[in-house]
Amino acid sequence: MAVVPFHLDSALMDRKNPALSCCLPGELPHPHTLSEPHGEKVPPPRTRGGGSFGPPGSLSYAVEVADAAELVPFKRVIWILGSLFLVSAGITLLFLGMRSVMDIGGACASGGPFVPVQPCPDGVPALMIGGIWIGMLAAFAYGWSSLSAGIPSFVGLLWPALFMSLGWNFLQYAFDPPFGDGPVWGWLLPGIIFELMGAVPLWLLFKTVGLTPQSNKVRAVLAPPGARTVATAIRAVTARRTDAAAVATGSRPDLVSELERLDALRRSGALSDEEYDKAKRRLLA
Amino acid sequence: MTRDRITWMVLQVLAAAGGVLFALWLFDRATS
Lengths: 285, 32
Known about the structure:
heterodimer; A: mainly alpha; 2 domains; B: mainly alpha
């Protein structure tokens, strides 16, 4: 058995700890409901920004480490980071394209049946249109993949980032136009509107759910050392205690509970899929 | 767990910064 960084046994064997009699077979006690081994209350979870539930060595810490063994699948990690990369690139392309168009007066046209008054800088229309579309699709992909994975997500910052960066262009060019003297009112007004369109949602987001909304339990990219061992150990001890309680009261855990326990063991890695199937068949026979 | 939160934040900030650098490179290449 791997060395675990806290006193798991003493925490689990504490008979006064009500956390261990709280749960169905195979279910872990929730960190919020736990008491410390010495009767101290765990501080309530923070509603914003995730939290650490207990000091190293406590049962709540052990449970949390075990929970962290539930990793975000690698494919999903690539989705999250790749889509964020593309969103960021899309917004930057739009930002740069807008600046290069503003450098030549703020409007351009190319192609089509009309005679362009001011031709666009080479390559800029394609980059801007590509940036808008790729950025938008990637923003949806990022929002979905990050929020459903249970990780701190920057999705709420995308809208403010887009509008405030473009608004910055308007304001900068309004006060310091490439030709003539400022302020250019035709750029100042959209600049203010864009800044407000970005800043107001940003402020509301900050006041309500926090800048990086997430559940309290953040799923990990990498498993902490010993996490799977601890998860298995905690589940096994919890299950054993529930069995003992069932024997003491003369009752037998029902079928659903047994199946749930088996499933928990499979998910923790204590049982392979094959062993799980075998045990399930035996249970249902 | 705080460590997971920090890991995710760092990875995402790196991905976003990578996107910005990529866009700067692409824009420079396409317009010069």
